[in-house]
Specification:
Blueprint (H helix, E strand, L loop, with lengths): L3 E6 L9 H11 L7 E7 L3 H9 L4 E7 L9 E5 L16 H11 L5 E7 L13 H17 L1
Parallel strand pairs: 1-2, 1-3, 3-5
Antiparallel strand pairs: 4-5
Helix pairs in contact: 1-4, 2-3
Length: 150
């Protein structure tokens, strides 16, 4: 059995930055949590990801986050994380996936497979709990993409 951790990053109070958290929430609504799949709302506390990776063994990690890559808002992308260099500095308030992975790597091995499913945000600079319509529309597509990966 392949054990998978799906971790949603983001600040739900900053519009589209809450994309990753919303995707994980919807996966939960669809009953995707199981003995082989764990869902984790990381929010803005990336150290939670490191703690979860230390507490349990996973074969695959799927990180979901809003990420600016210069594409049109709502664009989805999937990246394979090839290498993570361990950090020597621990920041308990790590908020970005790359730093959270560096912290986790410093304490031990990471899952054999690591993916990032991201979405280009329209706005993360204004306070608000709503995703923009274009990013909201991308949530279901991201859920389907992750379900296909499982």
């Amino acid at each position: 059995m392949t054990r998978t951790l799906i971790a949603g990053f983001g600040n739900v109070l900053r519009g589209d930055d809450g994309f990753g958290v919303e995707v994980v929430r919807r996966l939960g609504e669809r009953g995707r949590a199981s003995e082989s799949v764990e869902l984790l709302d990381v929010g803005t506390g990336g150290i939670r990801l490191a703690q979860e990776l230390l507490a349990s063994r996973f074969d695959r990690l799927i990180i979901v986050d809003a990420a600016t890559r210069g594409k049109p808002p709502g664009s989805l992308f999937t990246l394979v994380v090839e290498d993570v260099v361990p950090t020597k500095e621990i920041d308990m308030h790590t908020t970005v996936p790359s730093r959270a992975l560096e912290v986790a790597r410093a304490f031990g091995p990471l899952p054999a497979e690591i993916y990032l499913v991201g979405c280009e945000p329209e706005s993360v600079d204004q306070l608000g709990i709503e995703l923009s319509p274009i990013v909201e529309a991308a949530v279901d597509a991201a859920v389907q993409r992750i379900e296909a990966m499982l």
